Amino acid sequence: MILNQISYLDCIAFLIFLAPQLLIRVGLIETVSCVVTALPFFLFQLPYQFIRERFHTPQSQKPPFNQHATPFQDFVIRCVRYAFANIPAKIGKVFFSKGVALPFFWFRMLRHGYTKSAIPWKEVKKDGLHGIWMICDEEKKPDVVVYYCHGGGFSMGSSFFYLEFLLAWVSILKESGYSNPALFALEYTLVPESTYPTQVHETLLGYEYVLSKIEDSSRIVVSGDSAGATLMLSLLLYMSQEPKLRTQLPGLGIMISPWAVIVSPKNKDTPSDYLNADSLHLYGSQYIGSKASADDSLVSPGKCRDREWWRRASPSKGWFFIYGAEEVFAPETRELVDFLTEEVKTEVSVHEEKGWIHAWPVVKLFLCDGQKERQSGLRSMTKVMRNRLK
Protein backbone atom coordinates (compact mmCIF):
# COMPACT_ATOMS: atom_id res chain seq x y z
CA MET A 1 0.00 0.00 0.00
CA ILE A 2 1.99 2.95 -1.33
CA LEU A 3 -0.01 6.08 -2.15
CA ASN A 4 0.73 8.58 -4.91
CA GLN A 5 2.58 11.85 -4.38
CA ILE A 6 1.15 14.77 -2.44
CA SER A 7 -1.09 16.95 -4.63
CA TYR A 8 -2.26 20.54 -4.35
CA LEU A 9 -5.61 19.13 -3.19
CA ASP A 10 -3.76 17.34 -0.37
CA CYS A 11 -2.09 20.61 0.58
CA ILE A 12 -5.47 22.33 0.83
CA ALA A 13 -6.83 19.47 2.94
CA PHE A 14 -3.78 19.69 5.21
CA LEU A 15 -4.43 23.40 5.82
CA ILE A 16 -8.08 22.66 6.60
CA PHE A 17 -7.04 20.08 9.22
CA LEU A 18 -4.35 22.44 10.54
CA ALA A 19 -6.49 25.54 11.10
CA PRO A 20 -8.67 24.32 14.00
CA GLN A 21 -5.69 22.68 15.71
CA LEU A 22 -3.80 25.98 15.63
CA LEU A 23 -6.75 27.76 17.20
CA ILE A 24 -7.09 25.08 19.89
CA ARG A 25 -3.41 24.61 20.74
CA VAL A 26 -1.88 28.01 19.97
CA GLY A 27 -4.79 30.43 20.21
CA LEU A 28 -6.43 32.94 17.91
CA ILE A 29 -4.16 35.90 18.61
CA GLU A 30 -0.86 34.06 18.12
CA THR A 31 -2.17 32.26 15.03
CA VAL A 32 -3.39 35.48 13.41
CA SER A 33 -0.13 37.23 14.33
CA CYS A 34 1.89 34.46 12.66
CA VAL A 35 -0.28 34.60 9.53
CA VAL A 36 -0.02 38.39 9.28
CA THR A 37 3.76 38.24 9.72
CA ALA A 38 4.04 35.61 6.97
CA LEU A 39 1.78 37.38 4.45
CA PRO A 40 4.49 39.59 2.87
CA PHE A 41 6.58 36.49 2.16
CA PHE A 42 3.75 34.46 0.63
CA LEU A 43 2.17 37.36 -1.30
CA PHE A 44 5.28 39.10 -2.61
CA GLN A 45 8.66 37.57 -1.79
CA LEU A 46 7.81 33.94 -2.62
CA PRO A 47 6.19 34.61 -6.03
CA TYR A 48 8.95 37.03 -7.02
CA GLN A 49 11.81 34.71 -6.03
CA PHE A 50 10.09 31.67 -7.52
CA ILE A 51 9.52 33.31 -10.92
CA ARG A 52 12.95 34.97 -11.03
CA GLU A 53 14.95 31.89 -10.04
CA ARG A 54 12.74 29.38 -11.83
CA PHE A 55 12.40 31.10 -15.20
CA HIS A 56 14.98 33.90 -15.42
CA THR A 57 18.10 32.36 -13.88
CA PRO A 58 20.51 30.29 -16.01
CA GLN A 59 20.40 26.60 -15.12
CA SER A 60 24.07 26.55 -14.10
CA GLN A 61 23.52 29.39 -11.61
CA LYS A 62 20.59 27.78 -9.79
CA PRO A 63 21.16 26.00 -6.47
CA PRO A 64 21.83 22.26 -7.03
CA PHE A 65 18.40 21.22 -5.73
CA ASN A 66 16.55 23.72 -7.93
CA GLN A 67 18.37 22.46 -11.02
CA HIS A 68 16.38 19.22 -10.98
CA ALA A 69 13.35 20.03 -8.78
CA THR A 70 9.88 20.18 -10.29
CA PRO A 71 7.90 23.42 -9.82
CA PHE A 72 5.83 21.71 -7.11
CA GLN A 73 8.92 20.47 -5.23
CA ASP A 74 10.58 23.87 -5.56
CA PHE A 75 7.48 25.68 -4.27
CA VAL A 76 6.96 23.37 -1.28
CA ILE A 77 10.62 23.44 -0.20
CA ARG A 78 10.64 27.26 -0.36
CA CYS A 79 7.62 27.29 1.96
CA VAL A 80 9.23 24.79 4.34
CA ARG A 81 12.48 26.79 4.32
CA TYR A 82 10.61 29.94 5.35
CA ALA A 83 8.66 28.09 8.04
CA PHE A 84 11.73 26.48 9.58
CA ALA A 85 13.53 29.82 9.81
CA ASN A 86 10.65 32.07 10.83
CA ILE A 87 7.74 30.22 12.43
CA PRO A 88 8.09 29.52 16.18
CA ALA A 89 8.45 25.87 17.18
CA LYS A 90 5.28 26.20 19.27
CA ILE A 91 3.35 26.65 16.03
CA GLY A 92 5.52 24.33 13.93
CA LYS A 93 4.86 21.57 16.46
CA VAL A 94 1.15 21.67 15.58
CA PHE A 95 1.90 21.13 11.86
CA PHE A 96 3.34 17.68 12.58
CA SER A 97 1.08 16.71 15.49
CA LYS A 98 -1.22 13.71 15.66
CA GLY A 99 -4.29 15.96 15.51
CA VAL A 100 -3.29 17.17 12.04
CA ALA A 101 -1.23 14.28 10.66
CA LEU A 102 -3.69 11.46 11.37
CA PRO A 103 -6.76 13.06 9.71
CA PHE A 104 -4.50 14.00 6.79
CA PHE A 105 -3.30 10.39 6.50
CA TRP A 106 -6.89 9.11 6.40
CA PHE A 107 -7.82 11.76 3.84
CA ARG A 108 -4.97 10.54 1.65
CA MET A 109 -6.11 6.94 2.15
CA LEU A 110 -9.72 7.70 1.22
CA ARG A 111 -8.65 9.74 -1.79
CA HIS A 112 -6.88 6.62 -3.06
CA GLY A 113 -9.87 4.39 -2.36
CA TYR A 114 -8.68 2.77 0.89
CA THR A 115 -10.88 2.56 3.98
CA LYS A 116 -8.29 0.76 6.10
CA SER A 117 -4.56 0.16 6.13
CA ALA A 118 -3.30 -2.97 4.38
CA ILE A 119 -0.76 -3.27 7.19
CA PRO A 120 -2.28 -3.36 10.69
CA TRP A 121 -0.96 -0.74 13.08
CA LYS A 122 -1.83 0.38 16.59
CA GLU A 123 -0.88 3.11 19.01
CA VAL A 124 1.08 1.87 22.03
CA LYS A 125 0.79 3.67 25.37
CA LYS A 126 2.09 2.01 28.52
CA ASP A 127 4.53 2.57 31.39
CA GLY A 128 6.01 5.79 30.04
CA LEU A 129 6.25 4.41 26.50
CA HIS A 130 4.40 5.90 23.55
CA GLY A 131 4.66 4.89 19.92
CA ILE A 132 3.17 3.10 16.93
CA TRP A 133 3.52 -0.65 16.30
CA MET A 134 2.89 -2.08 12.84
CA ILE A 135 3.30 -5.64 11.57
CA CYS A 136 2.14 -7.52 8.47
CA ASP A 137 0.62 -10.48 10.33
CA GLU A 138 -0.45 -9.83 13.92
CA GLU A 139 -0.83 -13.57 14.59
CA LYS A 140 2.82 -14.39 13.89
CA LYS A 141 6.16 -13.28 15.30
CA PRO A 142 8.21 -10.87 13.18
CA ASP A 143 11.35 -12.03 11.40
CA VAL A 144 12.78 -8.49 11.35
CA VAL A 145 11.86 -5.30 13.23
CA VAL A 146 12.77 -1.72 12.35
CA TYR A 147 12.90 0.59 15.36
CA TYR A 148 12.38 4.15 14.10
CA CYS A 149 12.77 7.60 15.67
CA HIS A 150 11.32 10.62 13.88
CA GLY A 151 13.10 13.91 13.31
CA GLY A 152 11.99 17.48 13.98
CA GLY A 153 14.84 19.20 15.78
CA PHE A 154 13.71 17.69 19.12
CA SER A 155 11.09 20.49 19.07
CA MET A 156 8.43 19.19 16.69
CA GLY A 157 7.41 16.12 14.74
CA SER A 158 5.50 12.94 15.50
CA SER A 159 5.39 9.34 14.32
CA PHE A 160 1.90 10.03 12.97
CA PHE A 161 3.32 12.51 10.48
CA TYR A 162 5.64 9.71 9.26
CA LEU A 163 2.91 7.06 9.18
CA GLU A 164 2.62 6.89 5.39
CA PHE A 165 6.41 6.71 5.01
CA LEU A 166 6.73 3.96 7.62
CA LEU A 167 3.88 1.85 6.24
CA ALA A 168 5.43 2.13 2.79
CA TRP A 169 8.73 0.88 4.22
CA VAL A 170 7.08 -2.16 5.80
CA SER A 171 5.30 -2.87 2.50
CA ILE A 172 8.61 -2.80 0.62
CA LEU A 173 10.26 -5.01 3.26
CA LYS A 174 7.49 -7.57 2.77
CA GLU A 175 7.88 -7.35 -1.00
CA SER A 176 11.66 -7.82 -0.67
CA GLY A 177 11.29 -11.27 0.89
CA TYR A 178 10.90 -10.87 4.64
CA SER A 179 8.04 -13.08 5.81
CA ASN A 180 6.62 -10.85 8.55
CA PRO A 181 8.40 -7.49 8.88
CA ALA A 182 7.40 -5.13 11.68
CA LEU A 183 8.22 -1.59 12.76
CA PHE A 184 7.97 0.36 15.98
CA ALA A 185 8.03 4.16 15.79
CA LEU A 186 8.75 6.02 19.02
CA GLU A 187 6.88 9.08 20.27
CA TYR A 188 9.34 10.90 22.53
CA THR A 189 8.94 14.03 24.65
CA LEU A 190 9.69 17.21 22.73
CA VAL A 191 11.51 20.26 24.06
CA PRO A 192 10.93 22.48 25.93
CA GLU A 193 8.63 20.11 27.86
CA SER A 194 11.71 18.05 28.70
CA THR A 195 15.39 18.05 27.80
CA TYR A 196 18.28 15.59 27.58
CA PRO A 197 18.55 12.86 28.89
CA THR A 198 14.76 12.25 28.96
CA GLN A 199 14.59 11.51 25.23
CA VAL A 200 17.48 9.01 25.38
CA HIS A 201 15.81 7.18 28.28
CA GLU A 202 12.56 7.03 26.30
CA THR A 203 14.47 5.68 23.31
CA LEU A 204 15.82 2.90 25.53
CA LEU A 205 12.27 2.08 26.68
CA GLY A 206 11.29 1.79 23.04
CA TYR A 207 14.18 -0.56 22.34
CA GLU A 208 13.17 -2.75 25.27
CA TYR A 209 9.65 -2.89 23.83
CA VAL A 210 11.07 -4.06 20.49
CA LEU A 211 13.15 -6.71 22.29
CA SER A 212 9.92 -8.02 23.80
CA LYS A 213 8.62 -8.60 20.27
CA ILE A 214 11.63 -10.37 18.78
CA GLU A 215 14.02 -12.63 20.67
CA ASP A 216 17.08 -12.20 18.45
CA SER A 217 18.43 -8.63 18.71
CA SER A 218 20.49 -9.16 15.55
CA ARG A 219 17.16 -9.03 13.66
CA ILE A 220 16.55 -5.47 14.86
CA VAL A 221 17.38 -2.46 12.68
CA VAL A 222 17.58 0.89 14.45
CA SER A 223 16.84 3.87 12.25
CA GLY A 224 15.81 7.49 12.38
CA ASP A 225 16.10 10.78 10.58
CA SER A 226 17.71 13.99 11.79
CA ALA A 227 17.18 14.33 15.56
CA GLY A 228 15.73 10.82 15.58
CA ALA A 229 18.98 9.47 14.16
CA THR A 230 20.83 11.37 16.88
CA LEU A 231 18.78 9.59 19.54
CA MET A 232 19.57 6.22 17.96
CA LEU A 233 23.29 6.98 17.90
CA SER A 234 23.11 8.13 21.54
CA LEU A 235 21.16 4.98 22.44
CA LEU A 236 23.83 2.69 21.00
CA LEU A 237 26.64 4.57 22.75
CA TYR A 238 24.70 4.32 26.02
CA MET A 239 23.88 0.62 25.61
CA SER A 240 27.50 -0.23 24.90
CA GLN A 241 28.44 1.08 28.37
CA GLU A 242 25.93 -1.13 30.16
CA PRO A 243 27.00 -4.80 30.61
CA LYS A 244 23.41 -6.10 30.53
CA LEU A 245 22.58 -4.17 27.36
CA ARG A 246 25.85 -4.64 25.51
CA THR A 247 24.87 -8.16 24.42
CA GLN A 248 21.54 -6.95 23.00
CA LEU A 249 22.77 -4.50 20.38
CA PRO A 250 20.88 -4.45 17.07
CA GLY A 251 22.01 -6.01 13.82
CA LEU A 252 22.07 -2.84 11.72
CA GLY A 253 21.90 0.93 12.03
CA ILE A 254 20.35 3.01 9.22
CA MET A 255 20.88 6.71 9.83
CA ILE A 256 18.98 9.19 7.65
CA SER A 257 20.54 12.68 7.64
CA PRO A 258 21.77 12.40 11.25
CA TRP A 259 22.27 15.50 13.39
CA ALA A 260 25.64 14.16 14.47
CA VAL A 261 26.91 17.25 16.32
CA ILE A 262 24.17 19.27 17.97
CA VAL A 263 26.03 22.59 18.08
CA SER A 264 28.61 22.91 15.33
CA PRO A 265 30.07 25.79 13.27
CA LYS A 266 29.96 23.39 10.31
CA ASN A 267 26.16 23.37 10.39
CA LYS A 268 25.76 26.23 7.90
CA ASP A 269 22.89 27.25 5.65
CA THR A 270 23.06 26.05 2.06
CA PRO A 271 21.22 27.51 -0.97
CA SER A 272 19.33 24.23 -1.44
CA ASP A 273 18.42 22.91 2.00
CA TYR A 274 15.33 23.92 3.97
CA LEU A 275 17.07 23.72 7.36
CA ASN A 276 18.20 26.94 9.01
CA ALA A 277 21.41 27.00 11.05
CA ASP A 278 20.17 29.61 13.56
CA SER A 279 16.99 27.65 14.28
CA LEU A 280 19.02 24.47 14.65
CA HIS A 281 21.29 26.18 17.17
CA LEU A 282 18.24 27.29 19.18
CA TYR A 283 16.58 23.85 19.11
CA GLY A 284 19.85 22.10 19.88
CA SER A 285 20.55 24.37 22.86
CA GLN A 286 17.04 23.71 24.19
CA TYR A 287 17.60 19.95 23.89
CA ILE A 288 20.92 20.12 25.75
CA GLY A 289 19.33 22.12 28.56
CA SER A 290 21.16 23.58 31.53
CA LYS A 291 22.66 20.41 33.02
CA ALA A 292 24.32 18.74 30.01
CA SER A 293 27.22 19.77 27.79
CA ALA A 294 27.27 20.18 24.02
CA ASP A 295 30.55 18.23 24.06
CA ASP A 296 29.05 15.19 25.81
CA SER A 297 29.22 12.20 23.46
CA LEU A 298 25.79 11.00 24.54
CA VAL A 299 24.36 14.41 23.62
CA SER A 300 26.31 14.89 20.38
CA PRO A 301 27.41 11.43 19.17
CA GLY A 302 29.55 12.99 16.45
CA LYS A 303 31.74 14.44 19.19
CA CYS A 304 32.78 10.96 20.31
CA ARG A 305 36.26 10.13 19.05
CA ASP A 306 36.80 7.07 21.23
CA ARG A 307 37.44 4.24 18.75
CA GLU A 308 36.86 1.45 21.26
CA TRP A 309 33.61 2.98 22.43
CA TRP A 310 32.31 3.11 18.84
CA ARG A 311 33.45 -0.47 18.21
CA ARG A 312 31.41 -1.62 21.21
CA ALA A 313 28.44 0.49 20.13
CA SER A 314 28.35 -0.48 16.46
CA PRO A 315 25.61 -2.91 15.34
CA SER A 316 26.85 -6.40 14.48
CA LYS A 317 26.22 -5.88 10.76
CA GLY A 318 27.40 -2.29 10.68
CA TRP A 319 25.93 0.97 9.47
CA PHE A 320 24.21 2.58 6.52
CA PHE A 321 24.23 6.39 6.29
CA ILE A 322 21.93 8.04 3.78
CA TYR A 323 21.75 11.82 3.35
CA GLY A 324 21.66 14.66 0.83
CA ALA A 325 24.80 16.23 -0.58
CA GLU A 326 23.31 19.73 -0.22
CA GLU A 327 22.05 19.52 3.34
CA VAL A 328 23.22 21.50 6.35
CA PHE A 329 24.34 18.36 8.20
CA ALA A 330 26.38 16.91 5.32
CA PRO A 331 29.86 18.06 6.54
CA GLU A 332 29.45 16.58 10.04
CA THR A 333 27.88 13.42 8.63
CA ARG A 334 30.83 12.91 6.28
CA GLU A 335 33.23 13.35 9.20
CA LEU A 336 31.42 10.75 11.29
CA VAL A 337 31.28 8.30 8.37
CA ASP A 338 35.00 8.77 7.70
CA PHE A 339 35.81 8.22 11.38
CA LEU A 340 33.74 5.03 11.60
CA THR A 341 35.26 3.74 8.37
CA GLU A 342 38.91 4.69 8.77
CA GLU A 343 39.45 4.80 12.53
CA VAL A 344 36.86 2.44 14.02
CA LYS A 345 37.07 0.14 10.98
CA THR A 346 33.48 -1.03 11.31
CA GLU A 347 31.31 -1.92 8.32
CA VAL A 348 29.86 1.28 6.87
CA SER A 349 28.11 1.96 3.60
CA VAL A 350 26.99 5.39 2.44
CA HIS A 351 24.49 6.86 0.01
CA GLU A 352 25.00 10.59 -0.53
CA GLU A 353 22.27 11.74 -2.92
CA LYS A 354 23.67 14.33 -5.32
CA GLY A 355 21.72 17.58 -5.49
CA TRP A 356 19.36 16.57 -2.69
CA ILE A 357 18.53 17.90 0.73
CA HIS A 358 17.82 16.93 4.32
CA ALA A 359 15.97 13.65 4.97
CA TRP A 360 15.50 13.13 1.23
CA PRO A 361 14.10 9.55 1.47
CA VAL A 362 11.15 11.02 3.38
CA VAL A 363 10.88 14.13 1.19
CA LYS A 364 10.96 12.11 -2.03
CA LEU A 365 8.13 9.83 -0.96
CA PHE A 366 5.84 12.82 -0.50
CA LEU A 367 6.99 15.19 -3.26
CA CYS A 368 8.33 13.20 -6.22
CA ASP A 369 6.25 12.12 -9.24
CA GLY A 370 6.98 8.55 -10.33
CA GLN A 371 6.88 5.65 -7.89
CA LYS A 372 10.44 4.63 -8.80
CA GLU A 373 11.89 7.94 -7.62
CA ARG A 374 9.47 8.26 -4.70
CA GLN A 375 10.52 4.87 -3.34
CA SER A 376 14.23 5.16 -4.19
CA GLY A 377 15.35 6.00 -0.65
CA LEU A 378 13.25 3.28 0.96
CA ARG A 379 14.44 0.72 -1.57
CA SER A 380 18.08 1.67 -0.99
CA MET A 381 17.62 1.10 2.74
CA THR A 382 15.74 -2.15 2.15
CA LYS A 383 18.48 -3.41 -0.17
CA VAL A 384 21.09 -2.86 2.53
CA MET A 385 18.88 -4.69 5.02
CA ARG A 386 18.49 -7.67 2.70
CA ASN A 387 22.24 -7.82 2.07
CA ARG A 388 23.18 -7.60 5.75
CA LEU A 389 20.27 -9.41 7.43
CA LYS A 390 19.69 -12.45 5.21
TrEMBL record:
Top-level taxon in the UniProt lineage: Eukaryota
Keyword Nucleotide-binding found: no
SUPFAM superfamilies (UniProt xref): alpha/beta-Hydrolases (SSF53474)
A molecular function GO annotation: hydrolase activity
Occurrences of domain Alpha/beta hydrolase fold-3 (ranges): 146-360
Pfam families cross-referenced by the UniProt entry: Abhydrolase_3
TM helices/strands, residue ranges: 31-51
Keyword Electron transport: no
Record's keyword terms, sorted: Hydrolase, Membrane, Transmembrane, Transmembrane helix
InterPro entries: AB_hydrolase_3, AB_hydrolase_fold, GDXG_lipolytic_enzyme
Protein name, entry field: Arylacetamide deacetylase-like protein
Organism in which the protein naturally occurs: Aureobasidium pullulans
